[in-house]
Design brief:
The structure is a homotetramer of 204-residue chains. Chain A is mainly α and 204 residues long. Helix content of chain A is 61%, strand content 0%. Chain C binds a DNA duplex (21 and 21 nucleotides) through helix 3.
Amino acid sequence: MKVQLVYERSFSYHKTVRPRDQHKREAIFEATVKLVSDVGFADVSVSKIAKEANVSPATIYVYYKNKEDLLISIFVEIHEQKASAAMKGFDETSPLKEMFRKIWNNSFKFISENRDHLQYHEQFRSSPYNDLVNSTEATNIMQPFLAALESGAKDKVIKRIDDDILVAFIFSAIPVLSSSSYKTKMTRKNIETAFEMAWDAIKL
Amino acid sequence: MKVQLVYERSFSYHKTVRPRDQHKREAIFEATVKLVSDVGFADVSVSKIAKEANVSPATIYVYYKNKEDLLISIFVEIHEQKASAAMKGFDETSPLKEMFRKIWNNSFKFISENRDHLQYHEQFRSSPYNDLVNSTEATNIMQPFLAALESGAKDKVIKRIDDDILVAFIFSAIPVLSSSSYKTKMTRKNIETAFEMAWDAIKL
Amino acid sequence: MKVQLVYERSFSYHKTVRPRDQHKREAIFEATVKLVSDVGFADVSVSKIAKEANVSPATIYVYYKNKEDLLISIFVEIHEQKASAAMKGFDETSPLKEMFRKIWNNSFKFISENRDHLQYHEQFRSSPYNDLVNSTEATNIMQPFLAALESGAKDKVIKRIDDDILVAFIFSAIPVLSSSSYKTKMTRKNIETAFEMAWDAIKL
Amino acid sequence: MKVQLVYERSFSYHKTVRPRDQHKREAIFEATVKLVSDVGFADVSVSKIAKEANVSPATIYVYYKNKEDLLISIFVEIHEQKASAAMKGFDETSPLKEMFRKIWNNSFKFISENRDHLQYHEQFRSSPYNDLVNSTEATNIMQPFLAALESGAKDKVIKRIDDDILVAFIFSAIPVLSSSSYKTKMTRKNIETAFEMAWDAIKL
DNA sequence: GATGAATGAGTGTTCATTCAT
DNA sequence: CATGAATGAACACTCATTCAT
């Protein structure tokens, strides 16, 4: 049971001598996320990003090979941030439902603090860029949880079913709760109920 | 319990008098859906659409006010097709779970026959365009089902919770099953299991 | 004995409906020739051409697929103009030397009246673009002359040698006489002497 | 009778004190020649040269004032190499035709061993850069030969005519024989015949 | 109704060059 | 001496849209 993430080619620009201004890379990163979240994947342009990040358009090409590299690199980074955040404090000795609840709550915390990162993630996922990000090697941060799910299936605690579908149910509520009208939705109660629904979906 | 759909401004889609050459309108419609599905929202241009539809770029402006109008109108149309397809043969006298199963199966039939329509829908949903399509007036095609859900909640058959979240769980598996690796996923068994998960999520 | 000229792909933009403003195509043509002649192949840009031709850069792409198409199409056109001009009044019954003299004089007339066309031609020839212009099908305007050369070789009037080398000697003086310091060189006497040298080179 | 070569402004090439790392200068030189020969004058950029030469773009500016200086200096260098090669073993006591044959053969040797240098030379010659290289002071390497030609003219062995035209005929076959289809052309026989043609052109 | 021509504004990207190190 | 970072300006090209026909 493995869900792993790789990029076929090495995307980011990395000479042996480190770029001097790490701050600039971050500025570009944040500018891109903000813009995609604001105006959408279809309407981000390199020059808009440059303006938002307060650098020259040419500077972006010091840090990224091209626009595609930029967008993919950022996705990968967010994807890993998200996974790391979800797994924070993961305890593999606790019961499956508690593990799950932990991850669920972590996820919501991450989302509410990084709404536009999630936005970016969603848009990227539904774009054709998504097909350029491979799942053959690993960012196996989530691995322990997936392993737990598998053993839960073996122990007949949860349903035995394809990974992706399982994960879809588990996290299906997240985009909804973080949507543009999120303010009325991310109540304690809604989050708790959504969690219970997710659990009911997968449990046997 | 209401999910309604309006467009703030009046889009071409609802011109009461349709232009004469309905064939051309359809060609543009299909060309757009195909292109968005193939190359993504970010890379469809009016002239590409025109080429794909075998019309002049100028012709598109005969049928649609501008590009935004085109994209939104098409979304609305797909959205309604999807709802209509889901509700086909809906019988309000049957038990809720059977209603649900009917809609579920209808939905999968629609998807497997119109994969790129679904692709378009997904991309549109996660883009900021989505915010331009309002929910203050109605496409109330789904209304009978939503009413049934509401009465199901009243009768303590299913959970009482926000519409959007409910709907999210109900249909969360669909994008996954229709994703690019769909061929291995849309088996009879997977579809059935996914349905059971959805039902378990919402039932009390 | 054949020197022919073709372009592998069809370069110029040609819809069934003719562009309205033939004048514009010519303006672009002349602007390009002038610019290449003035600033050199390396430093012509589409926007400079557009400015010189008094059109928008985008307009150029109405008439030519891209910059390469533009440059090649213009070369081909000049090449044919040049050949046509050289062959004007060609009389295949006259003795070879007189044929040759006719063509020689025609060529000089063409050059002195179209110095920058020749400049363009020279620069194109020595650029790598030249390799994109094929010699497998024909602009056989020069064919009668080449045939005459061949029969001259058969009759032992001129040397039997590779076409290209023959042609090189015949026309080698032209670029020199039309060079930037041409004014002091294109005297009647120089032209006559150069012709005699060319003839001496090829005659037996 | 004088053909001299000067550069109006002082180019880096003639810095009396050469930078220490002669190896790097050569790497840049060769990289530039190779690139111009491969992709053409229009498509060489400083950074491409840097990459090809395995140095930083900034390093190029250590050795050359700017791009123009680089291109011109290299031309001058090739021009001198070419002249030196041609004059190797020049014997002013031998008859004019034998002198000429010597130079001719030397030239072909140089070309066949340095095809891309010749390519560079040709492209430079037909570009407007050529006008920046003046003929008021001297690289008088060829001087002895030109003097011999002049005295040949005085002795009525060869025609009396403008230097440039003379030289044009003498060397006109070279670019042809070294063109992209050279392999089929640089046969012993072709070279010999071309020499005879050149001699016939200039001899009285 | 349908179109090709035309374009100003914008696209992603590379340019030649400078500069602090 | 040698460099990577940085950039304003330019690059080739495409965009959404208008308009005369």
